[in-house]
Amino acid sequence: MNYRKWMLGVLVLLLCLPIGMGSVRAAGLQITIELDGEALSPDVPPYITSSNVTMVPAGVVSKGLGAAVEWDQNTRTATISKGENVLKLTSGLKTALVNDNAVGLDTSVQIVQGRVMVPLRFVSEQLGLQVVWNQAAKHIALYSNAEIGGPSTPSVPTVPTPSIPTPIVPTPVKPTPAVPSVPGAKASKEMKGAWISTVFNLDWPSTSSAGNETKQKKEFDTLLDKLQSAGFNAVFVQVRPSGDSLYPSVLVPWSKVLTGTQGKNPGYDPLEYMVSATHNRGMQFHAWFNPFRATTDASTSGLASNHVVKAHPEWVVPAENKLYINPGIPEARQHIIDTVMEVVKGYDIDGVHLDDYFYPSGVSFADDEAFKAYNPKAISSKGDWRRDNINDFISRLGQAIHGVKSNVSFGVSPFGVWRNKKADSTGSDTTAGVSAYDDMYADTRTWIRSGWIDYIAPQIYWSLSFSAARYDKLVDWWVNEVKGTGVKLYIGQATYKVGTDKSAEWQSGEQIINQLKYNEKYDEVAGSIMFRANDIVTRDPFGLASLLTFYFKS
Fold first, then answer.
1. Residues with Cβ < 8 Å from 123, sequence gap 6 or more?
2. DSSP string of 310-355?
3. What is d(CA 329, CA 344) in angstroms, rounded to the nearest whole number?
4. FRET label pair with 429: which of 70, 94, 269, 512, CA 20 to 30 Å apart?
5. H/E stretch holding 437
6. What is the pTM of this model?
7. Longest dimension (CA), the chain
8. Contacts of 412 (CB under 8 A, 6+ apart)
9. Among positive and negative, which fits the CA dihedral 172, 177, 178, 182?
10. CA distance 423 to 430
């Protein structure tokens, strides 16, 4: 019996060893910490728990945020409050209360050497303290302001200088905190953009904000602040998600995403607010249009009476369970140009941005009648005729934009593969199932060589190891396409795949960082646009936002 008790005691001791040894290892890490560039020396240094959570003294959070911290010994609860936000963390509990709402925790508050220790990442995310973790140096950099030194405004495209006085955004006088350099990184690229999707209320506005002007504005401000804090200096906001608009238009109805009902006035001008809020932060605002997609499904029951599907059914072609505006009809193309020009003329935008919704790929598209009726050049091949339609649209739209505001940039984000080398010896070393030229009828080479666009932003949404369409090979190819043309190259990157794509290479934010490092090889690569905003700063898989902050600010 004594032997059994002895063995039981040894077993318990062995079971406890990993935890004890984990604490020893954490203590041996000698983690250093700074706040806004100033080194901190807390009584109890930060440490990492056995569940890989970084703990810091509550005083650090209090100092960084100006938050009030109270400790109730009876309930063993730490209350951290700042403005309207109140966090309550109780020792031993796996949940915290955030404004009275229960939120799960990996590690709660702990008491070490008489000091209240709180989980850094959790508290920071709730209250707005930016955290940058340098794994190699075992160093934590904290930033209390919304932006870390402020992203520089790209020199091109420039913001048009209006003839009326505009508010001047003051330059912060606070010294920029030093951020450790990233090995392999070179000079910063000018464009650090993020797509903000409004279709299906993906990034903004939330469905819960329908018809609530105040909430929608606050949500957009928060999204901008998070993006700017991470180092982004431009947003590409979807203002025409489904043949409708996020601004008052005489041509198309109000978007459903604003109120839940297409055609319903939200009571304010969202685009005007978004442009102003973006410029007030020293960031660029690019108006993103889905050109030829009329709807996101085949139903017409919820469409407003002035939607293009109802106003001009003769322009509409059903395909892949969506409704498209037929690019083969000149009047239809002009209608889209007119809707874009409403925005160019009415708002102080920095650019017009199109995605790849031209012709749908991989499905039949009933345009035989248009091919016969609208073919003045007598083009024999329907494929060539379709490409000519899109070429005409791109050329005319570019001329219209620059004829009104020469400083507004115009660019397109096509599918990342122009043509495979097997189909065209001058194509990329890829074996993609579709291509922009052959399936979407987007002749990007002609656009670039003709100078119809200011930049091209191919969607290179694959990893550095994806054999059918490797990221590095495609960047190489697009660099050669723009070389010597004066057309800028921005790379579209798939931050949405981090943590959602089950491939091993996407189970870390390092895939995006390594892609950024690869871009640094080329002066022709003028920056990146990342899809999409909430995947970066809201979902934030594997601390992606902090990785980007660390990279951008180095």
1. 61, 80, 87, 129
2. HH-GGGEEEETTEEEE-TT-HHHHHHHHHHHHHHHHHS--SEEEE-
3. 23
4. 512
5. helix 436-439
6. 0.71
7. 101
8. 353, 354, 355, 356, 394, 442, 444, 447, 453, 456, 457
9. negative
10. 10
CATH of the domain spanning 23-143: 3.30.457.10
Taking alpha carbons only, the member of 351, 492, 483 closest to residue 415 is 492
The reported pLDDT for the residue numbered 52 is: 72
Nearest of 547, 537, 514 to residue 235 by alpha carbon? 537
Rounded distance, CA 217 to CA 208, Å? 13
Specify the length of the chain in residues.
Answer: 554
Contacts of 322 (CB under 8 A, 6+ apart): 293, 294, 295, 296, 297, 298, 360
- Hey, what's the torsion of the CAs at 245, 444, 428, 463, to 10 degrees? -20
How many distinct helices (H) and strands (E) make up the chain? 16, 23
Tokens of 52: 């890989």
Task: Give the type of residue at 113.
Answer: Q
pLDDT at residue number 329 = 98
What CATH number has the domain spanning 191-552?
A: 3.20.20.80
Domain coordinates of the chain in residue numbers?
Answer: 23-143, 191-552
- Spatial distance between the Cα atoms of 195 and 236, rounded to a whole number of angstroms: 5
What angle in degrees, to the nearest 10, is found between the helix axes of 270-280 and 213-230?
Answer: 30
**Could you report the average pLDDT of every consecutive run of 10 residues in the chain (554 residues)?**
45 39 44 73 83 81 73 89 80 84 81 86 68 64 45 36 42 37 52 98 96 97 97 98 97 98 98 98 98 96 97 97 97 98 98 97 96 98 98 98 98 98 97 96 98 98 96 98 98 96 94 97 97 96 95 89
* Cβ–Cβ under 8 Å, residues 233 and 553: no
- How far is 457 from 491, CA to CA, in rounded Å? 5
Q: Are 23-143 and 191-552 in the same CATH fold?
A: no
User: CB count, 10 Å around CB of 349?
Assistant: 26
Give the N- to C-terminal CA distance of the chain in Å, as an integer. 64
